[in-house]
Write a structure and sequence with these properties.
Layout (H helix, E strand, L loop, with lengths): L7 H8 L4 H8 L3 H7 L6 E4 L11 H7 L5 E4 L7 H6 L5 E4 L10 H13 L6 E5 L7 H8 L6 E5 L2 E2 L1 H11 L5 E5 L2 E2 L15 E5 L6 H9 L6 E5 L7 H9 L8 E5 L4 H10 L5 E3 L7 H7 L8 E3 L8 H10 L5 E8 H4 L11 E7 L7 H16 L6 E3 L33 E5 L9 H12 L5 E4 L18 H9 L3 E4 L23 E4 L4 E4 L16 H16 L3
Helix pairs in contact: 2-3, 6-7, 7-8, 10-11, 11-12
């Protein structure tokens, strides 16, 4: 065993499963372990603006570890560090997020340095241009086109004039397999007849301007191998007939994932679902999904894997129950409400469900407390059968109004202990439900979660959680003892904000999980694409620096400067 723990391949396998804090601990074991584990600290690196609390490493240290960096976030294109950028030869991903120009510098120079950098990295698979406040240059677009292994591109707030639009579309028609264009501006582009996006598998067109919705559908029709289409727009009428024709005439025969955050009526949704050959993933939040839509969806029940019907006012509890009891392959469901009376009608077919995000209502009958507790336990017993659950949320934003809704109670007396079989759970949300807990009940519930859900990473609730300490009263807030309990077990507390989340609120504290995404392994590239196509409550993928990373980095710098032996 001792010899095995000196083998680089064994240590690499271990290190890939550790966070930075644990890696730092391993570095202190011995010299050989430090040499093996130290490079893992540099897998992701953010080159930011100078800040007093986050000292930037010296150039020699950066140059020494440049080859270890796989993901790089650039927030400051410092010319004195250009040699470091050029030496990051093993980069898979780079995010360009520069917001300020140094004195004596200009925008073209910054874009030029970034262009020179990516032109020098033959391994690049993913590039993100994130709301840079200056117009992108032709040189950058031409350079990205020369990145022969680039398969993922995400752009946000990029302004494209006529010439740049043509360069951008040409770039996208090369080897790109995934494209996310978010709030980008196009200057009324035309699509030449020979322009085809042959390799495109995942296409996200979100709030694009300067390009009509009709042209956006033309773009869709030019992606013959597309698997997933995400379409978001604030305004504009959807040509449902054209979209239905694209789906039915074989233009995109492999398109099985539709995420339509656009204005659609119940009748229009039904027309789209009737035209689609096969649906596996479907997101229709804030749409008119109703009786006609569910009727059209039934023929897709055998293949349906993920469905998101958040904020759809016409979606009823019986509809949600029908999906759960009919879709054996379902892995993820999001909806507003499900009544206990519907839940108990028939068992659920989706034994492999991994994500459940539905507000549960339990109606109180004649003030019978014991009967109410029995009804709560009925619901928890049904949820406890979903042993593959990774994400569980049992309250919707609309259940904030306790007078019009009857959300399920979260307490051991109500049956929370029936969820003990959910050993794979990493995220649990009861949003504000602990606000109504009796003295000590909320604290006991959290203690139980910590004890039984060993893989729990995130707990979401209201910050004004009463009775979170034994003997607490209504004026209590979340006490340090509870925070310490969560922190001691490595569980993150996320405060639920009383507003519809996940669709348009970029400042919300989203759950950043690995699941619920379309993924594709590309053996030709040796690169596993973790798709942008996350569900709305998760928000965009972000590997930028945060406080936790800063703390870990400070610890690392301490050991690096100490010259650990």
């Amino acid at each position: 065993m001792d010899k095995a723990l000196t083998l680089p391949e064994i240590l690499a396998c271990i290190g890939n499963r550790l966070d930075n804090n644990n890696i730092i601990s391993c570095m202190q074991v011995c010299k050989s372990w430090r040499s093996e584990f130290e490079p893992l600290l540099w897998r992701s690196f953010t080159f930011g603006q100078l800040a007093p609390k986050e000292p930037r490493p010296e150039l020699p240290l950066l140059q020494k570890n440049a080859l270890h960096i796989r993901q790089l976030v650039i927030e400051h294109m410092d010319p004195t560090f250009q040699s470091f950028f050029m030496q990051c030869k093993q980069l898979d991903e780079v995010r360009f997020d520069v917001q300020e120009v140094d004195k004596g510098d200009d925008e073209d120079q910054i874009w030029g340095r970034f262009s020179d950098m990516i032109d020098n990295h033959g391994r690049l698979r993913k590039i993100v241009i994130d709301s840079v406040p200056w117009p992108i240059t032709n040189k950058v677009l031409e350079t990205m086109e020369r990145c022969s292994k680039l398969i993922v591109l995400e752009t946000k707030d990029v302004e494209l004039d006529v010439a740049k639009t043509q360069l951008y579309l040409k770039l996208c028609s090369k080897n790109l397999k995934r494209l996310s264009t978010y709030t980008d501006y196009y200057d009324h582009p035309e699509f030449p007849n020979d322009l085809v996006f042959q390799e495109m598998r995942y296409l996200d067109i979100c709030h694009a301007t300067g390009i009509s919705m009709d042209k956006q559908l033309t773009w869709l029709s030019r992606c013959p191998n597309l698997i997933s289409f995400r379409w978001e727009a604030w305004v504009g009428l959807v040509d449902v007939a054209k979209l239905s024709t694209i789906l039915s005439n074989g233009a995109c025969p492999n398109l099985t994932a539709l995420h339509l955050i656009v204005a659609l009526t119940d009748e229009e949704i039904a027309q789209i679902l009737e035209a689609a050959p096969r649906i596996e993933k479907l997101s229709l939040p804030r749409t008119g999904f109703g009786a006609r839509s569910i009727a059209a969806l039934r023929r897709h029940f055998p293949t349906l894997r993920d469905i998101n019907l958040q904020f759809c006012s016409k979606v009823t509890s019986p509809m949600v129950q029908e999906i759960l009891r009919s879709c054996a392959n379902l892995q993820s469901i999001s909806a507003e409400a499900l009544n206990r009376s519907d839940i108990i009608q028939q068992p659920w077919a989706c034994k492999g469900l991994q994500m459940f995000d539905v507000g549960i209502d339990v109606v109180e009958e004649n003030g019978d407390y014991e009967l109410l507790m029995t009804h709560y336990r009925d619901v928890y017993q049904r949820l406890g059968q979903l042993k593959e659950l990774d994400y569980l949320s049992i309250c919707s934003g609309n259940q904030m109004d306790m007078y019009s809704r009857n959300p399920i109670k979260v307490s051991l007396e109500a049956g929370l202990d029936e969820l003990a079989p959910l050993t794979k759970l990493t995220f649990f949300s009861c949003k504000t439900l602990l606000d109504s807990s009796e003295d000590g009940e909320g604290f006991e519930a959290v203690e139980w979660m910590v004890e039984h859900w060993k893989k729990l990473e995130t707990f979401e609730a209201s910050g004004l959680v009463t009775a979170m300490v034994p003997g607490g009263d209504e004026d209590d807030i979340l006490e340090p003892s509870v925070m310490d309990l969560l922190k001691d077990h490595g569980i993150k507390f996320t405060e639920f904000i009383s507003s519809p989340r996940g669709l348009y609120d970029e400042d919300a504290d989203f759950y950043e999980g690995d699941g619920w995404t379309d993924q594709e392994d590309n053996d030709d590239y040796g690169y596993d694409m973790d798709d942008f196509e996350t569900y709305e409550h998760f928000g965009p993928i972000d590997f930028s620096s945060d406080d936790e990373y800063a703390d870990q980095y400070t610890q690392y710098m301490h050991f690096a400067m100490m010259g650990l032996e």
